[in-house]
Amino acid sequence: MQTGFTTLRFALSQAQQKVWIQRQLTPLSKTLKHMNLELNGKNVIITGGSKGIGRCIALAFADEGANVAICARGAEALARTKDEVAARGVKCFAQSCDVGDASSLAVFLDAANTSLGGVDVLVNNPSGFGVSDDEAGWKVGFDVDMMAAVRATQRVTPWIAARGGGAIIHISSISGMEGTTRAIPYAAMKAAMISHSKSMALTLAPKDIRVNCVSPGSVEFPGGLWEARKLANDPGYEAVRNGIPFKRLGRPEEIAAVVVFLASSQASWLTGANIPVDGGQHPGNL
Length: 286
Prior knowledge:
The chain is 50% helix and 13% strand. The protein is of the alpha/beta class and 286 residues long. Strands 3-2-1-4-5-6-7 form a seven-stranded parallel β-sheet, sandwiched between helices. Helix 5 (102-116) runs parallel beside helix 6 (135-162) and helix 6 runs parallel beside helix 7 (184-204).
């Protein structure tokens, strides 16, 4: 049976077909080229937003016209990033905070909500990098990776709901998508964040709040762990780089671009997803 498109194609001359196809595709190409993320004037909280991936997420939102609140433990890097964000002509609130401490996190979140005048988007980004399989490694991973995300989500959700809905994004890792003999606490906490985001996606959908997870692969940036390994001529750096199909590590801007898209109106039907942003580093089907 011929479809309507097939019937029309046979009824037109070759020249007419070409013109007709161009007319059908032109609106789509224009839409993709001039995609409006509708983030201008939105208010975004990013925990762990002074360096690396968090910094680039903050700058990417600011580039879209969103107001941003960031926190971190280091005051110097936090101040630099605040200046970078504010230079883009948006409001930026920054406050030193230990996200692993429940009261410190609550103080920051409350102040950010007041300063911005409401919240539309929450990005849970920090990690304690609990790599040692001992009490200390598990505790820092649980406090900084897992519970900081849980607590921030619980506290911010009513504020997002009051604005008519919005988005929450967890930054996990491809380490949370597979078993490992290294950094066991880190992998376990990142897996828990993926699970938590999926449960929250179901729970918060009636409030028109979408919840998704982004799982970066190995990402290199100035002052980061992978740059340090490269400068130290650590053979593990080359092993990881050669294991990535593109033969390079990711850039924080590449992670930020996906986060900003997930927070935007263009991702309105996307929730409960875990998106690996890793250049093919994690080859699994799931």
